[in-house]
Specification:
- The structure is a single chain.
- This protein is α+β, with helices and mostly antiparallel strands.
- Helices cover 26% and strands 36% of the residues.
- It contains five helices and ten strands.
- The chain has helices at residues 2-16, 25-46, 57-63, 76-81, 90-93; strands spanning 72-73, 86-87, 102-112, 115-125, 128-136, 142-149, 163-169, 175-181, 186-195, 201-208.
- The chain has a five-stranded antiparallel beta sheet, with no helix packed on it. A five-stranded antiparallel beta sheet has the order 2-3-4-5-6, with no helix packed on it.
- Strand 8 and strand 9 form a beta hairpin.
- Helix 1 runs antiparallel to helix 2.
- It is globular, with a radius of gyration of 23 Å.
């Protein structure tokens, strides 16, 4: 951080000191951009991401995540505490195509058919997280995402004491999404997804109780 402050000070001095060649606005902006780029590198390095080792920050971030073994499934503790999830740096968030939510956290899953899988949780409100499953391409850019667990909007006509959003990902990479009725002790609806050749989440089957 001291190095960043020193570089910024040099840029300002070069522009303001009398008797020396003054920088044009374009040259000054270039120097400030260089300082900003160095600052971003330092922030990523604190997250275990060293841009000097490779040119792809998404790969470095993905490789820094904790790997969760399969199968995994919904539990109250899992969606509450998000075990082994790591905070997503601000410099990476823009790549994740998030529409809302704050304080994202992520973990990786074993690869399947060349598809890199990542769990991403975002805080919707008051520490309650929605959980997404991402599929990434060879460049670690998101190809598709699937909502595994959604925080219910307070305006939704859904009683959280009655229904549970259950999800599971099997060792064969089948993704099961269920709306489970505690009263009836049965699934009100169930969807099963798989990862297709295009690394997208494709619906294999769907059923709903009347």
């Amino acid at each position: 951080m001291k190095k960043l402050i020193g570089l910024l000070g040099i840029a300002i001095l070069c522009f303001s000191c009398g008797g020396r060649k003054q920088l044009s606005p374009e040259e000054l902006q270039h120097k400030l951009d260089s300082v900003k780029a160095l600052e971003i590198r330092e922030k990523l390095k604190l997250q275990g991401i060293n841009l000097e080792d490779a040119s792809n920050p998404l790969k470095l971030f993905y490789d820094s995540l904790y790997l969760q073994s399969l199968p995994i499934s919904y539990t109250e503790d899992y969606v509450r505490f998000l075990p082994d999830f790591k905070e997503v740096p601000a410099e990476i968030i823009s790549y994740m195509n998030l529409e809302k939510g704050v304080h994202p956290k992520a973990a990786s899953l074993p690869e399947s058919l060349g598809a890199r899988l990542m769990l991403l949780a975002v805080d919707e409100y008051e520490g309650q997280y929605t959980i997404w499953l991402y599929s990434l391409d060879n460049e670690y850019v998101p190809v598709d995402k699937l909502c595994l667990y959604a925080v219910e909007d307070k305006e939704d006509d859904i009683n959280p004491e009655e229904f549970v959003q259950y999800f599971s990902i099997t060792s064969d990479y089948e993704i099961h999404l269920l709306d489970y009725s505690k009263t009836r002790q049965t699934a009100q609806s169930e969807e099963v997804y798989y990862i297709d050749d295009a690394r997208r989440f494709a619906l294999r089957s769907s059923k709903k109780e009347e």
